[in-house]
Amino acid sequence: MTKPIIRIKNISKSFGAVRVLDGLSIDVMPKERLALIGPSGSGKTTILRILMTLERINDGHIEIDGEQLCHMERAGQLVPADEKHLANARQKIGMVFQHFNLFPHKSVIDNITLAPILTKGVAKPIAEKRAMELLDMVGLADKAKGMPVELSGGQKQRVAIARALALQPKVMLFDEVTSALDPELVEEVLSVLWQLSTETDMTMLLVTHEMGFAHDFAHRVLFFDRGKIVEEGKPGDIFRQPKHERTQAFLKKILAAGHRI
After folding, report:
1. Contacts of 257 (CB under 8 A, 6+ apart)
2. Does domain 6-256 bear CATH number 3.40.50.300?
3. 148 near 104, Cβ under 8 Å?
4. CB atoms within 10 A of CB 148
5. Cα–Cα dist 142/150, whole Å
6. Bridge partners, 18 (sequence order)
7. What are the Cα distances from residue 3, in Å, to 9, 21, 78, 167?
8. Which of 92, 99, 161, 245 is the most buried (most CB within 10 A)?
9. Mean pLDDT, rounded, for 235-252
10. How far is CA 104 from CA 139, 141, 147, 149, 158, in A?
11. What confidence category does residue 207 fall into, taking pLDDT thresholds of 50, 70 and 90?
12. Does residue 100 contact residue 160 with C-beta atoms inside 8 Å?
């Protein structure tokens, strides 16, 4: 049988006295598209930040592609990972953030080539060739020499996706990638995610409030509340026939706000 590419085992995470994740366990299979939904503050983004090694866990273990993420072996014991281990581990993972996080003083193509050149030692001509291929894929080849300030929000987010793809990750994390966009720009970003799903074999984890997109895009949906998975299943089951009353109440509010499911 195929092994999970991500194994999250009984992890917990607290910020001070606030427990954000509470004994969480998730297996994600290769090529799976997983949507994480739930109210703000339920722990969804924290999971992505932990997978990206931007936050440390308090308890538990995580494996990415069979290797420990937050720990490493020393003298036959698992100990917290050092920075070198974390840097190597996160090369398998790409993340696209809510607010783009592009370097404003660098051109579009430099934003994309910087990480491959610095972290993987890719020669600049090779990195630039790959960057142009990615910009072409997201429909922005003509913006390569431009600066982020010259781009719309949707264009910035598509550059951010190209930048994450430049490191050729096995896992892509998307954190509310449309929530900072004007409504008319949302579709152009979601169409790129659809394109990735058909043209690559990447595993994708998506935190989103775009319930209609999650319904159509994901293989599986996890509903979070207070750091725990309250309900999980196929999109049709979660969105059309949720079993848990907390899930029902959340989706009722989403519909009342005028969102499509």
Report:
1. none
2. yes
3. yes
4. 19
5. 12
6. 15
7. 14, 24, 21, 23
8. 161
9. 93
10. 20, 18, 7, 7, 15
11. very high
12. yes
Please report the sign of the dihedral spanned by the C-alpha atoms of residue 254, residue 39, residue 47, residue 28: negative
Q: Residue 256 — φ and ψ, nearest 5°?
A: -65, -25
Q: HSE on the CB side for 51, CA within 13 Å?
A: 33
**Alpha carbon distance 252, 86 (integer Å):** 40
Tens digit of each residue's pLDDT (9 = 90 or more) over 93-103: 999 988 888 99
Q: Which amino acid, 3?
A: K
DSSP-derived 3-state class of residue 81: coil
**Six token digits for residue 178:** 């449309």
Q: Would you list the domain boundaries of the chain? A: 6-256
The per-residue pLDDT for 209 is 87
Q: Which helix (H) or strand (E) holds 122?
A: none
Could you tell me whether strands 33-37 and 203-207 are parallel, antiparallel, or unpaired per DSSP bridges?
parallel
What pLDDT does residue 259 have?
Answer: 67
Residue 233 neighbours by CB under 8 Å, 6+ apart: 220, 221
The C-alpha torsion from 58 through 62 and 64 to 70, rounded to 10°, is 30
| Cross-strand partners of 68 | 63
Spatial distance between the Cα atoms of 106 and 108, rounded to a whole number of angstroms: 7
Q: Which residues of 166-185 are buried (b: 16+ CB within 10 A; e: fewer)?
A: bbebbbbbbbbbbeebeeeb
Rounded to the nearest angstrom, the gap between the alpha carbon of residue 166 and the centroid of all alpha carbons in its chain is 15
CB 8 within 8 A of CB 24: yes
The secondary structure of 152-200 as a DSSP string is -HHHHHHHHHHHHHTT--SEEEEESTTTTS-HHHHHHHHHHHHHHHHH-
Q: Report whether pLDDT(260) > 80.
A: no
